[in-house]
Amino acid sequence: MPINKPNRKATSRKKRLAEAILALTSLKFGPKQRNETAAYTLLALLDLQSDAAWSDAQAPLRGITPIIDFIATAYGNRYAPNTRETIRDDAVKFFVEEGLLLRNPDEPHRPTNSGKTVYQIEPTALALLRKFGTAAWTPALQNYLVSRESLKHEIARKRDLTRVPVTLPDGSEVALSPGGQNPLIKSIIEHFCPIFAPGGVVLYIGDTQNKFVHLEAAGLAALGVSLDSASKIPDVIVHYRAKNWLILIEAVTSAGPVDGKRRKELKTLFALCKAGLVFVTAFENRRTMQAFVSHIAWESEVWIADDPDHMIHFNGERFLGPYPDVTAQS
Q1: What does pTM read for this prediction?
Q2: 3-class SS shares of the chain: helix, strand, coil, % to 5
Q3: 273 and 330 in contact (C-beta within 8 Å)?
Q4: Domain boundaries, the chain
Q5: What is the pLDDT of residues 117-127, one digit of tens each?
Q6: Residue 115 class from Cβ within 10 Å (0-12 exposed, 13-18 middle, 19+ buried)?
Q7: Residue 70 and residue 62 in contact, taking contact as beta carbons nearer than 8 Å
Q8: Which residues pair with 247 in a beta bridge?
């Protein structure tokens, strides 16, 4: 009895999935990165239908949602929206770390947390996978595995070239991930601090790729502050030692100014601080500030990178200083 068409399709899909798992196993990926989800993710990033030859593999630019859509359309396996993080963390993120995928090759300066983030199969890996199932696969695989570490180093080198270098007040440097608010954070460290907190110590800098890219835990502990990774920490924390102020700065390019709610959150988070608290919202320019000006909290400050020598003070009896509700704790 002939096999009907739906069964043929199911058989070809199952066969292709098994091949993808075998390819990932051959590439020395661990159990989480060679399971069914990881295999489907690889096929989506190769734009490989179940009835196509491996030599037909392509290298489309795809984000997480298009990956999920491809798997549903090409392989009939529908992932719920809440599986996005699973696909990102258990497959895509690890593939990037191992050099199998490139993140944002079309726009290296795109922020890591951008909704426009896309991934693409690395060209050397694409050339290898096109040989899967042929006599050329085994020698090509051996060559690839031998050269993979040097390939990863080269990818990392190119990625580092896009990072944002920041010079701290003490002359040391920190490299932030590209794009987003990080150019503004660079301006805060290199322009705001020397003018409004001379001699200050930068105790914390947040980064979308690494929340604790710069952390002076001992300096914070000396002030009675302990930061938890689950806490909503301000983008920059500076201890202005001359006045014993802890300046909490939010860098705003699209969201997150120090409004009334945020001021209360920060006051609670730093309730045990032995320094007076100063709240600052930083913007790149006045145009950006205009979108948020009605939300800025009273008893806080606004700094604009385009006019670095000036500060906008929102009410109160003092300029750039802690108010009675957030003075240093004895």
Answers
A1: 0.61
A2: 45, 15, 40
A3: no
A4: 5-161, 164-326
A5: 999 999 999 99
A6: exposed
A7: yes
A8: 238, 278
pLDDT per residue as tens digits for the range 253-268: 888 899 999 999 999 9
Assigned CATH for 5-161: 1.10.10.1820
Stated as kind and residue range, the H or E segment containing 174 is strand 173-176
248 contact partners, CB below 8 Å, separation of at least 6: 234, 236, 237, 258, 266, 270, 277, 278, 279, 280
Other CB atoms within 10 A of residue 269 CB: 18
Burial class (CB in 10 A: 0-12, 13-18, 19+), 267: middle
pLDDT-based confidence at residue 156 (cuts at 50, 70, 90): confident
- Rounded Cα distance between 78 and 163, Å, is 36
- Between CA 152 and CA 163, with CA 157 as vertex, the angle to 5 degrees is 125
Mean pLDDT check: name the lowest of 95-109, 130-144, 253-267, 316-330.
Answer: 316-330
Judge contact between 249 and 193, C-beta under 8 A. Answer: no
More confident site: 106 or 126: 126
User: What gap in Å lies between CA 156 and CA 151, rounded to an integer?
Assistant: 9
Measured from the Cβ of residue 149, the count of other Cβ atoms closer than 10 Å reads 10
**277 conformational bin, left if phi > 0, alpha if psi -120 to 50, beta if neither:** beta
Structural contact between residues 91 and 85, judged by C-beta atoms closer than 8 angstroms = no
- Which positions ≥6 away from 68 have C-beta within 8 Å? 79, 81, 83, 84, 87
3-state secondary structure of 54: helix
What the block records as the tokens of 252 is 């705003």
Q: Where are the alpha helices (DSSP H) in 188-259?
A: 193-196, 217-222
The CATH number of the structural domain formed by 164-326 is 3.40.1350.80
